[in-house]
Amino acid sequence: LVFFDLSHGVSSLVRFIIRLAPFGILGLVADTIATTGFEALASYGQLIAVLLGAMAIIAFVVNPLLVFAKTGSNPYPLVFTCLRESGVTAFFTRSSAANIPVNLQLCEKLKLNEEIYGVSIPLGATINMAGAAITITVLTLATVNTLGIEVDFASAILLSLLAAISACGASGVAGGSLLLIPLACSLFGIPNEVAMQVVATGFIIGVIQDSAETALNSSTDVVFTAAVCQSQKV
C-alpha cells in the first residue's frame, strides 16, 4: 500500500511537470535562437529534414506494416491515437522515462491487459529506441560524408546494427542518444574530438531532433503493446 501511494504520488508530480513542459520548450527554443541566431539554426535545416523524414517513415510506414502483420487489421487508427495521446506529450517532455505515466494511462484507456503493459511500457522506455538509432545513424553518416570517408554497403549495415544495439543504452532522458555518437563514429576511425563536435551539433538541433525522437520512441511503446494485446485477444 505504501509503495502504491508513493508510485501514485510520483506519477501525479510527473503529470504536473508535463503540463508545464511547453513553457520550458519555448524557453529552450528562445535561448537557442538568441545564442546562435536564425541563420545558424537554418544552416542545419537539411540535417533536421533528413532526421525528421527518417522518423516519419518509421512512424507512418514501418510501424503500421509491423502492426498489420501482427493483427491483420487497419493499423492507422491505433498509430494516430498513440501519436496524439502519447507522442505529443513525449515531444514536449523529451524523456521516455517521464512519459511512462502517460503511456500507462493510455494503455488503461485502450483497455489493454495490465499484466502485459505493466511490463512492456517501462521496458520499452528503456530499450525501444528507434528514434535514437536513427539519430545515431544519420549524424554519423553526415560526419563521415563531411570528412570524405568512403562508406560501402557492408559498413552501412554494420553501422545500422551498431546504432540499433547501442540505442538500447540511451538513458531515456533528453539528449541521451547524442552521447552514443562517438561510439558509432569510432567504427570509421573518427577521433573523439571530431565526434564530440558532432554531439555539440546534436545539442544545437536537439530542440527539434530530440523532441521528435522521443515522440517516436514513446508512442511506439504503446503501439506495439496494443498490437500484441489485439493479436492475443487479451
Fold and architecture overview:
- The chain has about 230 residues and is an all-alpha fold.
- It has a single domain (about 1-230), classed as Sodium:dicarboxylate symporter (Proton glutamate symport protein, Orthogonal Bundle).
- It has ten helices and no strands.
- The protein has helices spanning about 1-40, 45-70, 75-95, 100-110, 115-125, 130-145, 155-165, 180-185, 190-205, 205-230.
- Helix 2 runs parallel beside helix 10, helix 3 (about 75-95) packs antiparallel against helix 10 and helix 5 runs antiparallel to helix 10.
- It is globular, with a radius of gyration of 18 Å.
Short note summarizing the structure:
By secondary structure, the chain is mostly helical. It has helices at residues 2-42, 45-71, 76-93, 100-109, 114-127, 130-147, 153-167, 181-185, 192-204, 206-232.
Blueprint (SSEs and pairs):
Layout: H1 2-42, H2 45-71, H3 76-93, H4 100-109, H5 114-127, H6 130-147, H7 153-167, H8 181-185, H9 192-204, H10 206-232
Helix pairs in contact: 2-6, 2-10, 3-10, 4-5, 4-10, 5-10, 6-7, 6-10
CATH topology: Proton glutamate symport protein
CATH class: Mainly Alpha
Taken as a percent bin, the fraction of beta residues is under 5%
What's the main sheet like? Answer: none
Cα distance spanning the termini: 27 Å
Number of domains: 1
Alpha carbon gyration radius? 18 Å
Q: Which word captures the global form?
A: globular
CATH architecture: Orthogonal Bundle
Percent helix? over 70%
Quickly count the helices: 10
CATH superfamily: Sodium:dicarboxylate symporter
Contiguous runs where pLDDT drops below 50 for at least 5 residues: none
Average per-residue pLDDT, rounded, comes to 84
